[in-house]
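[job 0412] stage=fold_complex status=start
inputs:
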Amino acid sequence: MIGTRQGWMVLGGVLTVLAIASLIGYAMSLRVRDDASRKVVENLNARIKAWWVMVVVLAGALMTGPKPTIVLFGLISLVALREFLTLTPTRKADHFALLMSFFVVLPSQYGLVWTAWYGVFTIFVPVYVFLLLPAFTIISDDATKNFLQRTSETQWALTICVYCISHVPALLMLTIPGHDPAMLIVFLLVVAESSDVLQYVWGKLAGRHKIAPHVSPSKTVEGFAGGVLSATALGTCLWWMTPFHPWQAALYSFLIAMTGFLGGLVMSAIKRDRGVKDWGHLIEGHGGMLDRLDSICFAAPIFFHLTRFFFSTT
Amino acid sequence: MLERIAVASITGAAKILTGAQCQWIGCGPRDAQRIYFANHSSHLDFVLLWSALPPALRKSTRPVAAADYWFQGTIRRFLMRQVFHAVPVERDTGRNGAGTHLLQPVSLQPMLDALDEGSSLIIFPEGTRGSGEEVQPFRSGIFHLAKDRPDVELVPVWIENCYRVMPKGSLLPVPLLCTVRFGTPTKLGREERRPDFLDRLKKAVEELRNL
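[job 0412] stage=fold_complex status=done
writing structure:
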C-alpha cells in the first residue's frame, strides 16, 4: 500500500503541517486576552488535536492494506449514517427500513467494494435499495403518514452516508498501470480537507462578504475563493503522487475543492432545516463525523468517476 | 464478579449503541436522594438513564420495574436483582370503567421502603411504554411518593430517540444516537392538588424535549 516513498513523503508533509499548526495554536493560546477570542482559539486547538487523531488512524489503515481501509470507511459510514438518521424524524413504521439500512445495505455496499464488484457497486443503492426499501417498508407496516418525506429522508441518508462515502475506498478498485490507487485516496482526502481548512483560515483572515448567509453564516466569498484556489495550488504541487500531469492535477484539485464546497453548503442546509448546528459530538471541536466529511461526500463520487473514466483500465 | 462484568458490558453496550449523550441542564449529578422520572417509550429507557449516571450514583439509584415482566425469566431476573438492583412493583393490569388499562402499582410500599433505605429511584409515571410521539398522562403513584417522602428531590428527565432505537414490539435495536436530559429538581407544593401536580410534572418532562 502506501508504505512507499511517496506515501511517507505525504505523511511527513501532513504531520509537519500539523506540528506547525499545533505550535501556532499554542502561541495563540498564550496571547488571548478576552473571552470571545479565547473560545475561538480553544476550538481551533481542539480541532488541531482531533486532526492528529484522524491522520494517525487514516494513515494506519492505509498503510496496513486495502482491507483495513475498506473496514475503516465502513465504520465511518456507520457513524455518519447514525448521525444523519438521528436527525430525521422517522416513525415506528420505519423501524424495518432503519434495520435494513444499518444491517443490510451498509454491509452489502462495503462488501461490494471489498469484492471490487464495480457493476453492482454503482447501482445497488440507486436502483435496488431505492426501489425496494420503500416497498418493504409498506409491507412491514402500512402506515402512509408522511410516507414520501420519510422514505426520502432515509434514502438521502443512505445515499450520502453509505453510497457516496463508499466511493473513497472504491478508488482502490481502479487499475492504473504503474500507480498505487491508495495514493488517489490520499490525494482526494488531502485536497478536500485542506480546502475546508483553507476556506476556514481565509474566511477568518479576510472574510467580508457572506456567500450564503441563510445557510451558513461563516462561509464568505473571500474564504471560498481563497480556499478553493489555494487548495487547487496545493493539489497541483502534489501531482507527483498521482497518475496525473500537473495541469490535470490542477483540474482535479479544482474539481474536488468545488464539489467539496457545494457539499458543505448542501449539508449545512440540511442541518439548518433540522435546526441543529452540528451533526453530532463525536469529534472534539469539529462536531460530528459528517461535519468533517460533508465535502468528501460530494467530492468522492465525482472524483471516482472522472478518474475511472479517463485513467483506469478496468 | 459476574455482576461487575454485567454492569460494564451493559453500560458499555448502551454507550456504543446509542452514544448515550448526557446533558445535565437543570441540575448536576449530585449525590442527593432523588426520584428521576422520565418519558417511557422503549425497554432501553431505564438502561440508558441508569448508564447516564456517574458510577457512584448508579450504586444508590434503583429503577422501578414491573414485576410481571422484568422479574420473569432467569436472565431478566438476574439483571434486575444483581445488576440494576431494581425495585419490583406489582402492576394492576386490570381495566377501568372506560376500558383502558390501569397499570397502577398495586402498592407503593416497595418504593417507599427503597427510599427509606436511602436509595434514589428511576420511575416512568406513564405506567407503560408509549409510541414515543406523545407523553401520556402520568399515573398518580409519583404524587403519593412525593407526599409521603417530601424531602426527596423530583428530577424530570427526557430520553430522546430511544423509541426509535427500539420501539415497542421490536426485537432488534438500531444504533441511533440518544440523549438523556436532566431538568430542574422540583417538589410537591404545599397546597398542590393531585391533577395539577401530575400535569406540572408531565410538562416539566415535555419542556426538556424541545431544547
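[job 0412] summary: Chain A has three domains: 1-64, 66-173, 174-314.
[job 0412] exit 0
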